[in-house]
Amino acid sequence: MSLVRRNVIANFAGRIWTALVNLAFIPLYVQYLGMEAYGLIGFHATMAAMFSLLDLGLSSTINREIARWAARPSDGQEVRNLVRTLETIYWVAALWIAVLVVALAPLIAGRWVDARDLPADTVAHAVRMMGLSIALQWPSALYAGGIEGLQHQVFLNGVQIAGLTLRNGGVVLALAWLSPTLTIFFGWTAAVNALMTLVLRESLWRMLPVTGRSALFDRGVVRRVWRFAGGMSGIAILSFILMQMDRLVLSKMLSLEQFGYYTLAVTVASTLLQVVRPFTSAFFPQLVQAAAVPGDRSLALLYHRSCQVVSVAVVPVAITLAVFSRELLLVWTGEERVASQVAQPLALLSVGYGLLALMNMPYLLQLASGWLQLAFWQNVLSVVVLLPLLLWAVRSYGATGAAMVWLLLNIGYVLIAVPLMHRRLLPGEAGEWYLHDTGAPICVALLVVLGSSVSVHGQTARSVLLLTIGGIWLIATLAAGLAAPQMRAMLLGRAGRGARAGL
Q: Which end of the chain is more exposed for a tag (fewer CB within 10 A), N or C?
């Protein structure tokens, strides 16, 4: 089995488990803590994403730099100094995260979060614990990026699966056996985050070459990578604004309960990014190495294959979520009120996140080539347009309005950014992306899901609904695979080899 295929399988197993665990435990969190407290958990996720801006592009930088070093191993001391330098910067930033959140906790509790049942002191204490939890987890992104660059992704996913299971499963047991409070929730989360960060740190250092010399903080490393890291930092800041602006605005304009419903919709729809992550993690080091050879045709072939793989994995899921949003929410939560509040935003967000997932490979090609200007200015323009649209839409249509704006934003990416990217990096290949890499799988999967939707109407049993919708998704996935040329060749080739082996 090839390294890419092994990494894809490991990454996919890790992301499926992540999505399943996150979705499975949400009803339990709501049951033990209530919807308003769950809104604070959603605010914790938003705040963690906000502080990811302090990454300054370093996790992407270490991934790219270690992947380039692994392709042409040279000075082992240089890569050890790289890791020591970047981790020093990371841990200093983690300390500032904890200090800042603790200091601002009363202001956040009193002026930003609209809690109606939870006391202000309880909210402030929860925010302080959020800061500790985020600070302890935050450096793990750097170590994970280094392990990804070394392509030890089977090991990385094993550690992340274990940590995720311990964090979510353990906190539910603690809520059930000790006390159903936010203190227990965030205290357990912080402890597991600390353990995970230490395990990843120790693992990365063991994977690096042994030189017999201590790793040193090297200012020369900062000078060498600052341009790429700075570009990634600018993109990260703007991406955060784009990814989190809807939740920041809604956390201020809606009640905490309504914000909790929207957070639930985002949590479900954003699992599409978890679906695509296994493939991007496995393909990115390969794209970096192919892009290092100018004019190499293998780059275009690898790029189109990766785009088609992503389309087949993502498109059927996104369409199924959008078409059957209400039914899936009923199966998942068993609550008619939750389904009625969340279904429409979820349908719109599913399409939006699906389009964003399809943009991942074009974006990674830009990173692999070291060309960051398009992504940066695309995000600048999007922020300028998004904020006034979002404020108007939320005032007029509430959470559904925010979901509509998110969908329009990602449609703009597909129609504008994709041709510009191909014109610079892969001239003449944009038509292939629109027609074969994404267009054909979208059309075929959409026909299958819409054509089969009649079989779901009138079904009330949750098990029957789940099996029926699951069957529709499987058929749509197979149809999308046959519609994508490289995926079709691979599927038919395997089927032919299987038939010959059976003779």
A: C
